[in-house]
UniProtKB/TrEMBL annotation, chain B:
Entry keyword Metal-binding: yes
Protein known as: Xanthine dehydrogenase iron-sulfur-binding subunit XdhC
Species assigned in the record: Mesorhizobium escarrei
Highest taxon above the source species: Bacteria
Domain 2Fe-2S ferredoxin-type as annotated: residue spans: 4-80
EC number(s) given by UniProt: 1.17.1.4
InterPro entries noted in UniProt: 2Fe-2S-bd, 2Fe-2S-bd_dom_sf, 2Fe-2S_ferredoxin-like_sf, 2Fe-2S_ferredoxin-type, 2Fe2S_fd_BS, Beta-grasp_dom_sf, Diverse_Oxidoreductases
Alphabetical list of CDD domains matching this protein: fer2
Length: 758, 158
């Protein structure tokens, strides 16, 4: 591949415009097909039996009565999904999470499944399955789980990352550490030091579409899977491995996806549906209920974080450290490590150290949630930064500007930054009219910064030019929120044709090479890179065909504005050939015209944002209202600015819900108390104001158009920005997310010496 | 269990079906009639993704039994456009990018249509409270509210 991914400044014709998305009409007319909207002839209904216990040994499962029920076509347990993971610990955890093998590890853990002719029969069959549990002591709180007295979930786990291997197993799977310099020396030079502990509760991605799939395994060993997923190639790989199939024999088609936010990056029900179909010999549709979505899929980590930051009187931070404890559910993860990497990434620090602890608890397996782990770390750090600025007597924005990372700064997690947007987003926030707007009684303003790495990864794209000159773009990154529009813009830009001439589709796993999933804000970044590369390969073919049509050397043909042009005075009488004209003659000049690209999209530019918000707190009830919210974020280059704004607004809204409302509530029995949208309350329309956005464009040097990922960073600052606003409004530092009315009221009363209580 | 015979009107068409007594109208629409535009996001009336209009009243079809549609008028997202002519709300949702994943969109469009039928000139606050029964996790609602405002002004001028 001789594709040069480096940024080159150019004037854009299509990129940066705001056309209607190609999948739009189907989505406003109800025609678009999501995970649960697909059916196959002879399809059965699958349902999963789940553990009611937080922690229990499975002594025996008797499925005989269920199997005898009329209409039941298959019943499976872990025995039907034998361990084929061959020592791959991460894959074993996925298998065990799909279907509990020896122990049920959380309320909602799958223990058996049925396929029946209809939903009612399937539900009846579940009630006939007898599971003999030996209930074990459980632990759901991250701090409790770290204590020596806590029940140990997995006695083969000995904490990794310690100098000496521990002699006893524990719930701490790993310790990780990042940083540089000498924090003791740094704190020694500080005039002011702020030290605080923070907690955040577990939240769910809250996608409106529950997990859904249709699996069909044929007796010849081939299979089809229709599924809502952020990564159908990854699902194919995991499902094939878990079922002992060759990947090429399993065709996975990604449906339209009704939200993912990281929660549809892992298989749960899909291997179960395939195993049911294999056993029943018929297609099986498996759709989770909302209760199952909350109890068994998703959630992010609950955390407990200690932060200490020191600064001189002039506002220079001299040292910073954080200890971060993140819950992983019952399986090992690297969630605290991501928190430890991102915590201080916004700042230029001489002395910094972060330590992360991955903690097992009897809750669902933690899954990625939009910039996973970064929002909680930012909440703790940005709260402490605000408090420190106040102690020094500096404006919180000025304090951050003074300490902001710049090009050439060594980041707290290791790499040296290229051109970055933290300083510019802070300057833009400082100059934003929002900062100068007056505040009323009981109102407070807060701001905070956020960082996310952004990923690139493996990407494969096909660009086929039809004989009528229209362009089919087949991409392998699932479109979670408008990327078919942005990638069509990129193809049109590169080829010099109209946006409407391009039709982008997400190809199935048998029609295109492997693609990593749509995560890490990589969809538009990486697939646009592959689209540019594919288009350039197609242009090479188009030039060759034009040269052939004219009978001149290909080196004399250039491509401009969608046309082949013969270069040089001697060709003065040759009229330019349009893409359409070249395509029309392709049958006589060598056949179909296409461009293909496969690449690893390196160099995803890091992303920064600064958010500002105004909150009103009712001091008598602790209730809050978000009055105004502004997002400033660097996009590198906004390919479709309207959808970039949408990413900024959506991330902010999710962060607002996390900051103020959302949390998993567990009872003493270890059962989830609020597995539904009534009691797990995500923000509704009347909770929010308009969310203003400001897009900055600091080109990513590692992308031809300067594009950076934009999807995730927007959820990083809100927890802290809102906590700072609430703290300013209520006159008391808030340290526990979500800041629900009872927590705010308790904090206000504690600050006033409890004189309002009773 | 014996099926219940139901005669109803869906998007102006006379429709007859057999359903179980405990079967929701949402399941009937999706599984028996192939009208999958209404989505099941929760099954408990909390998310609004299955919104339909039943005799001029906005309801969650997951909270209505299939048998209850007997003799009534059902409007779903599939009946909102006239042929290839989109309803102004549909057009404005596209223009404002008021959808990202789009799974909540049919419910929002039905709820917004009902809102504008009852209040053709709503304030921002009235729109926000009028749509508070529909959950969207992608957009932060900003562009949805703007699309409804824009559609309202177009429809008034029509």
């Amino acid at each position: 591949m001789n594709f040069d991914p480096r940024y080159s400044g150019r004037n854009f014709a299509s990129v940066g415009t705001r056309p209607i998305r190609p999948d739009g009409v189907d989505k406003v007319t109800g025609r678009a097909r999501y995970g649960a909207d697909f059916n196959m002839a002879g399809q059965l209904v699958g349902r999963v039996l789940r553990s009611p216990h937080a922690h229990a040994t499975i002594r025996k499962i008797d499925t005989s009565k269920a199997e005898k029920l009329n209409g039941v076509k298959a019943v499976i347990t872990a025995a039907d999904l034998p361990d084929l993971t061959d020592g791959d610990a991460a894959l074993y955890d996925i298998l065990d999470n799909c279907m509990a093998r020896k122990k049920a590890l959380y309320d909602g853990h799958a223990v058996a499944a049925v396929a029946a002719v209809d939903a009612r029969t399937a539900r009846q069959a579940l009630q006939l399955i007898e599971v003999d549990y030996e209930v074990l002591p459980h632990v759901t709180d991250v701090d409790e789980a770290m204590k020596h007295s806590a029940p140990v979930l997995n006695d083969t786990i000995f904490t990794e990352g310690l100098e000496q291997k521990p002699v006893k197993p524990s719930n701490v799977t790993k310790r990780s550490q990042y940083g540089h310099g000498d924090i003791h020396e740094g704190f020694g030079r500080a005039d002011y030091v702020v030290e605080r502990s923070f907690k955040t509760e577990q939240t769910h991605q809250g996608y409106i579409e529950p997990h859904a799939c249709v699996a069909s395994v044929s007796s010849d060993g081939t299979a089809d899977l229709w599924v809502c997923t952020q990564g159908h190639f990854v699902y194919r790989q995991h499902c094939a491995q878990l079922l002992g199939m060759e990947a090429s024999k399993l065709r996975v088609t990604s449906s339209e996806i009704g939200g993912g936010f990281g929660g549809k990056t892992h298989v749960w029900a899909e291997p179960v549906a395939l195993a049911l179909s294999r056993k029943a010999g018929r297609p099986v549709k498996l759709v989770m209920t909302r209760d199952e979505v909350f109890r068994a899929s998703g959630p992010t980590s609950a955390t407990s974080i200690d932060v200490r930051i020191g600064a001189r009187k002039d506002g220079t931070i001299t040292a910073a450290e954080a200890t971060l404890r993140y819950s992983c559910g019952p399986y090992a993860g690297m969630w605290a490590e991501l928190g430890a990497m991102t915590a201080f990434a916004c700042y230029n620090l001489a002395n910094v150290r972060t330590v992360g602890y991955e903690v097992l608890v009897n809750r669902p397996k933690t899954a990625a949630y939009r910039a996973p782990s970064a929002p909680m770390a930012a909440f703790a750090v940005e709260s402490a930064v605000d408090e420190l600025a106040k102690e020094i007597g500096m404006d919180p924005v000025e304090f951050r500007i003074r300490n902001a990372a710049q090009e050439g700064t060594r980041s707290s997690y290791g790499p040296v930054y290229g051109p970055i947007g933290i300083g510019p987003t802070l300057e833009a926030a400082k100059n934003h009219p929002h900062m100068k707007a007056p505040l009323g009684e009981n109102q407070g303003r807060g701001m905070a910064c956020g960082f996310w790495f952004n990923f690139g990864g493996q990407t494969c794209t096909d660009l086929n030019i039809g004989m009528d000159g229209s362009v089919s773009l087949a991409v392998g990154t699932v479109d979670v929120g408008g990327s078919r529009a942005s990638l069509s813009l990129v193809a049109a830009e590169e080829l010099g044709i109209a946006y409407e001439q391009v039709k982008a589709v997400v190809a199935d796993t048998s029609s295109l090479g492997y693609n990593d999933m749509t995560d890490g804000s990589r969809g538009t970044f990486s697939s646009s890179m592959a689209t540019i590369s594919a288009a350039r390969n197609a242009i090479k073919v188009l030039r060759e065909r034009a040269a052939q049509m004219w009978d001149i050397p290909v080196d004399d043909v250039v491509w401009e504005n969608g046309h082949a042009i013969a270069k040089g005075e001697k060709y003065g009488n040759l009229a330019a050939l349009s893409l359409k004209e070249i395509a029309a003659g392709s049958g006589k000049t060598g056949g179909p015209i296409a461009g293909h690209s496969e690449l690893v999209a390196d160099g995803a530019g890091v992303s920064f944002a600064t958010h500002i918000c105004d909150i009103e707190v009712d001091p008598e009830t602790g209730a809050t209202k978000v009055l105004r919210y502004t997002v400033v974020q660097d996009a590198g280059k906004a390919v479709h600015p309207t959808y970039v704004e949408g990413q900024y607004q959506g991330g902010a809204a999710q962060g607002i819900g996390w900051a103020l409302n959302e949390e998993y509530v567990y009872g003493k029995d270890g059962r989830l108390q609020n597995p539904g949208f009534l009691d797990y309350r995500i923000p509704v329309c009347s909770d929010l104001p308009m969310i203003d956005t400001q897009i900055l464009e600091i080109p990513n040097p590692n992308h031809p158009y300067g594009v950076r990922g934009v999807g995730e960073t927007s959820i990083v600052p809100p927890l802290a920005a809102i906590a700072n606003a609430v703290s300013n409004a209520a006159g008391v530092r808030m340290t526990h997310i979500p800041m629900s009315p009872p927590r705010i009221l308790a904090a206000i009363e504690a600050e006033r010496g409890g004189r309002w209580s009773k | 269990m014996a099926g219940v015979a139901v005669s109803t009107t869906i998007n102006g068409d006379n429709v007859e079906y057999l359903c179980q007594p405990d079967e929701t109208l949402l399941d009937v629409l999706r599984d028996r009639l192939g009208l999958t535009g209404a989505k099941e996001g929760c099954g408990t009336g909390d998310c609004g993704a299955c919104s339909i209009i039943l005799d001029d009243r906005l309801v969650c079809s997951c909270l209505v039994l299939g048998a209850e549609a007997e003799g009534r008028r059902v409007e779903t997202i599939e009946g909102m456009a006239h042929g290839d002519r989109l309803h102004p709300l549909q057009q404005k949702f596209l223009e404002h990018a008021a959808l990202q994943c789009g799974v909540c969109t049919p419910g929002f469009l039905i709820a917004a249509k009902d809102l504008l039928a009852k209040n053709p000139d709503p304030t921002e606050e009235e729109i926000r409270f009028g749509l508070a029964g529909n959950l969207c996790r992608c957009t932060g609602y900003d562009k949805i509210v703007r699309a409804v405002q824009d559609a309202a002004s177009v429809m008034k001028g029509a």
